[in-house]
Amino acid sequence: MKITIHSRNERHEFKADEGQSLLMAGLSSGVALPYACASGTCGSCSARLAAGKVEDLWSAAPGKKPTAKADEILLCQCAPRGDCEIELKQSVSQVAPDEIRPFTAEGTVTRWELLTHDVASWEIELQEPMNYRAGQFVLLGTPGISGYRAYSIVNYERDSCRLELLIKRKPGGGLSEAYFGTNQVGTSVRVMGPLGQAVFKPSLQKNLLCIAGGSGVAGMMSILSHAQELDYFWDKTGAVFFGVRSMRDTFFLERLAGFSRAARGGLDVTICISDESVSLDVAHQYPGLAFKQGLVHEVALTQMEGRLSDVHAFLAGPPPAVDAAMRGLVLQGKLSPTNISYDKFN
C-alpha cells in the first residue's frame, strides 16, 4: 500500500504492510515522522487523513483528543486499509542514511525478577539482533492485550538479541497487571524499535546530567553503560540523581555504585528519597552513593547550582516530575532547552 505524506515542507511516499501502523511504516522507510511515546498516549503523532481508509488499532488510545474530528488520526495507532494520503502541520524530513531504522521482531521473555513491590526487571530474547542507541526505547505487544506499551532499554549491547527492560506495576494497567500476576518466562512478545530521540551522543563531548524518577532510570542505565564502555568520564563529568519515595522503592543501587567506582571520581550518583529521612546505616551500606532527602528535581537543582555549563541533561520519570525538572533547569539553572533530552511517556 502506498502512503503519501503532505507535510509543511515537502511530500514523502513510502510503502506500508497490512496491519502495520503508519508511524512504523514511515520510520522504517526513513521518513522522520513526528512522534514521542509512539504508543498512543501523548498525541504527538496526530495527523489528518486526507484520502483513503485506516484501521484504528486502539480506539481507546488516551492520546486522542476528546473533540477530534473523524479525519483526525494518530499515526502510531492506525494501519492503512489501502493507499492513503496524510496531511501533517509539521515539517518532515528524511532520516540520515546512517541512522538506525526501527523494525518489528518476535521475542520471548527469558527472565522475570521483582526488584521492588511494584517494579520488575525482565529480559527478552529476540529472534534477530537489534542495534540501538543508548537512551532509546521499544514498543512491546503481548497476545491478548490490545495496543503496545513503551519500555526504555536498560542494557547497551550492539548486535545483541538480548533486551533488558523495566516494568512498573500500574493499578488497572492491562499489561502490567497481567505480568505481575504470573511468571511470564516463556511468553511470546512482539517488539518494535528502536525508537526515541533522547539518546546519548558522545561526539557532543558534554558533561552528563541524568535526573530520573522510579522506573525512568531504565534509559539512564543504558547511557551509563555506553559511557563506561567509552571511558567517557576520564575527561568529562557525570551526575546522576535517582528519585524514589522510600528506601523500599530503591533498586539498582549496586549497579549504580559500580558505575561510580568505574568512573574513578568522574561520576557522582545521588539517591533522592522524597517521603522519609535517610538513615546513616543506608549511607554506610553503599559508600559509593550519596543519599539526600527531597524531591529528585529539587535536590538536583540544588546540587548542580553553578555546575550546568557545558552540560547535557537527560530527564525521565513521571510526566509531572519531568516537567518540574525541565522548568527548573531552564528557568533557575539557565540551561538551554537544546541541551535537555527526554522522551514523553504518559
Automatic annotation (TrEMBL):
What organism is the protein native to? Cupriavidus phytorum
The protein's name: Methanesulfonate monooxygenase reductase component
| PROSITE patterns xrefs | 2FE2S_FER_1, 2FE2S_FER_2, FAD_FR
Q: Which cofactor does it need?
A: FAD
Question: Which GO terms of the molecular function aspect are on file?
Answer: 2 iron, 2 sulfur cluster binding; monooxygenase activity
- Pfam families associated with the record: FAD_binding_6, Fer2, NAD_binding_1
PANTHER family from the xrefs? NADH OXIDOREDUCTASE HCR, PROTEIN RFBI
Q: Which CDD domains match?
A: fer2
Q: Source organism lineage?
A: Bacteria, Pseudomonadati, Pseudomonadota, Betaproteobacteria, Burkholderiales
Provide the 2Fe-2S ferredoxin-type domain boundaries: 1-92
All residue ranges annotated as the FAD-binding FR-type domain in the record: 102-201
Q: Does the keyword Repeat apply?
A: no
Q: Which UniProt keywords apply?
A: 2Fe-2S, Iron, Iron-sulfur, Metal-binding, Monooxygenase, Oxidoreductase
